[in-house]
Q: What sequence folds into this?
């Protein structure tokens, strides 16, 4: 109990606040630039192609789509997450980083990597989208930059693990505070997950782009990529879950319903996120059907902790709403503090995530996937998940985190509220149309406005894609204005600066079983599952690899 | 809420019930997929042969892409994909035909999605992708490239013409 009470008084140092703040500066800048290209794709869908007006700065639809994917899905997420988790770890532990220089080296490595990736993209020498499937070939700097971003995030992760270890030694027998443990689990998941893409870049793509080897094995490259690609989405999602479980209940005046289940959910994600990648490769020609079926069933397994999350988070919200006087079976929802933009953004993100989750189950379904694979359904799906559940939650977090770190007041509460709603509405319109078009057979990553095979009856849906994209552009501009005016505003009176919302749990975390605070069994379990689900296929695919596919430009 | 036992998970009853429901629902999904896979003869593309993407278009079946009738109403279609066209661009079969598609690429990755069928393939250079479709209704079935393959991707498509009786 003492832990939770004392946590309110803790203040990280100014240097730590600034360090986290720099992560957010890079993240929000990337989101700002990357998201400008989203509406360009969305407008193209109904034949309004604005790319000719961007000449000679941006050469093609695909250069724009590459910027959109890399900046939003990779840069915004990775920088926000490493910054946010650094914050939740030190704030939860009430302890400074044990090796702050290590975290700084990690961050600088990520920034150098970002620049190395950005230059070839801006020069149109890497317009191969954020999945960078070979044999489409980019400049070597693109691959090197991506590798550096990953390595930098590893180093920041090591700084976090060492800090957690130091705290554990100083506090024997004390349960790790939830937001710190969950943050560290997320970073551990990321270290395991990125082994795939690290192998892909270091053993194939980088030497190939440098001319040291003549070709790649594009089938094996896909296997490496999706080893990382699916847990990547949990790396995006789990920081939102940290907020939903560990912070949002406090923001609505409630408590975390179950500390035990919150921890269990995170361990289950560590266990189950990685050995599921083949469900992105159901229609690939180099994986036997039985292995695809195994990954399909494990994918259902990883849906389970998300179902647990749905219960615990909603129960925590209900607890808060009833304490605020909420009544009725569903009527309590009205008693939630919808006027707080940070809360509204995260509630809307959670509501849209229900549909994202259902769509995800469809994607994972062995047979249904044949209808959906490579269609706009998939892009619609991940705009509900990473671009709404994750991104809108992160935006909601910045509505208290940026004022807290900078010692300012949030500028324009009503504007921020409007931003949350327009993002949710725009994304609902956009994603609904994308899902429907996908079911009708529209291929993703295609300028549909110029495709010659589009039937006329798709017209209204394509228009909805453009309308959704336009609403999102408005929402993005509001977000950037709110962030800028907050960060550039005058210092606020300390009483006006928001607190860090850390939710207490209904019962003391000390009553949480010790096995939910031990790393080794879960790490060993995750390793074993990966060995079972991936080992034999990796041995046979690497053993049989033929590096005979030369590179091509897009 | 009942008083939790120390060191237990401290599960609320509603929480326990919800987890059970979640497990049952996921098992039902898995069961439905298993029945679909084993009971209805549904298939996903599995392992096929490997080829050399540099030479595949000049030797073997893919040197002469197109339709082969291997029995009455049973066909094999060999398709070569390259930036930014399928070869051949059009195949015609009579209504009721069963066609097994064999597709490969001589350059980058492509996709083959035949509208209104279950044929949806990732086409990966160095590999042959395959699936079978039966065309019971006459009409035009566009097949489109469904994986980004470069600047001309949006124009990469072809069609299966299914001819009605007479």
A:
């Amino acid at each position: 109990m003492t832990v939770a009470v004392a946590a309110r008084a803790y203040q990280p140092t100014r240097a730590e606040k600034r360090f986290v703040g720099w992560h957010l500066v890079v993240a929000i800048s990337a989101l700002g630039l990357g998201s400008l290209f989203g509406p360009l794709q969305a407008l193209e869908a109904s034949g309004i192609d604005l790319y000719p007006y961007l000449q000679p700065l941006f050469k093609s639809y695909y250069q724009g789509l590459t910027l959109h994917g890399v900046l939003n899905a990779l840069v915004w997420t990775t920088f926000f997450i490493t910054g946010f988790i650094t914050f939740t770890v030190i704030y939860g532990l009430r302890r400074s980083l044990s090796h702050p220089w290590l975290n700084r080296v990690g961050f600088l490595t990520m920034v150098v990597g970002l620049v190395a990736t950005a230059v070839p993209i801006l020069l149109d020498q890497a317009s191969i989208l954020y999945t960078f499937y070979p044999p489409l070939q980019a400049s070597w700097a693109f691959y090197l930059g991506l590798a550096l971003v990953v390595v930098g995030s590893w180093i920041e992760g090591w700084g976090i693990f060492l800090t957690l270890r130091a705290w554990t030694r100083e506090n024997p027998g004390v349960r790790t505070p939830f937001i710190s443990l969950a943050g560290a689990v997320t970073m551990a998941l990321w270290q395991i997950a990125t082994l795939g893409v690290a192998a892909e870049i270091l053993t194939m793509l980088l030497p190939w782009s440098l001319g040291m080897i003549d070709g790649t094995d594009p089938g094996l490259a896909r296997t490496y990529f999706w080893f990382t690609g699916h847990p990547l989405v949990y790396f995006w999602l789990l920081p939102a879950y940290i907020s939903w479980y560990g912070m949002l209940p406090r923001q609505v005046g409630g408590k975390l319903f179950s500390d035990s289940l919150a921890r269990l959910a995170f361990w289950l994600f560590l266990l189950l996120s990685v050995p599921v990648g083949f469900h992105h490769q159901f229609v690939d020609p180099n994986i036997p059907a039985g292995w695809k079926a195994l990954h399909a069933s494990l994918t259902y397994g990883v849906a389970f902790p998300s179902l647990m999350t749905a219960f615990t988070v909603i129960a925590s919200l209900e607890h808060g709403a009833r304490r605020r006087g909420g009544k009725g079976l569903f009527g309590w929802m009205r008693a939630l503090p919808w006027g707080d933009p940070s809360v509204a953004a995260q509630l809307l993100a959670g509501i849209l995530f229900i549909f994202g989750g259902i769509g995800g189950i469809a994607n994972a379904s062995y047979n249904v996937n044949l209808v959906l694979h490579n269609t706009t359904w998939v892009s619609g799906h991940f705009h509900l998940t990473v671009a709404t559940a994750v991104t809108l939650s992160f935006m909601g977090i910045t509505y208290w985190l940026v004022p807290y770190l900078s010692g300012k007041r949030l500028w324009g509460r009503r504007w921020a509220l409007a931003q949350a709603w327009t993002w949710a509405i725009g994304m609902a319109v956009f994603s609904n149309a994308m899902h429907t078009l996908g079911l009708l057979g529209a291929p993703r990553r295609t300028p549909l406005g110029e495709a010659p095979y589009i039937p006329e009856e798709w017209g209204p849906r394509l228009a909805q894609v453009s309308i959704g994209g336009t609403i999102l552009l408005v929402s993005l501009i509001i977000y950037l204005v709110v962030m800028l005016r907050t960060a550039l505003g005058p210092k606020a009176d300390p009483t006006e600066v928001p607190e860090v919302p850390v939710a207490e749990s209904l019962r003391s975390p000390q009553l949480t079983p010790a096995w939910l605070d031990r790393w080794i069994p879960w790490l060993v379990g995750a390793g074993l599952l990966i060995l079972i689900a991936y080992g034999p296929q990796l041995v046979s695919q690497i053993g049989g690899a033929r590096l005979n596919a030369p590179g091509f430009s897009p | 809420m009942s008083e939790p036992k120390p060191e237990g998970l401290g599960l609320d009853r509603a929480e326990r019930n919800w987890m059970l429901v979640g497990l049952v629902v996921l098992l039902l999904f898995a069961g439905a997929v298993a029945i679909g896979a084993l009971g209805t003869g549904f298939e996903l593309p599995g392992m096929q042969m490997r080829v050399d993407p540099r030479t595949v278009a000049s030797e073997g079946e893919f040197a002469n892409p197109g339709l082969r009738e291997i029995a009455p109403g049973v066909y094999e279609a060999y398709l070569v994909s390259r930036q930014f066209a399928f070869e051949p661009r059009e195949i015609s079969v009579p209504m009721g035909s069963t066609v097994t598609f064999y597709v490969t690429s001589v350059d980058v990755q492509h996709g083959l999605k035949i509208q209104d069928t279950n044929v949806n393939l990732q086409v990966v250079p160095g590999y042959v992708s395959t699936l079978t479709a039966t065309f019971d209704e006459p009409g035009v079935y566009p097949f489109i490239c469904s994986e980004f393959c470069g600047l001309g991707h949006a124009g990469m498509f072809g069609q299966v013409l299914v001819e009605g009786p007479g």
Observations:
- Chain B touches chain A through 66 residues (CB under 8 Å).
- The two ends of chain B are 74 Å apart (CA to CA).
- The mean pLDDT of chain B is 90.
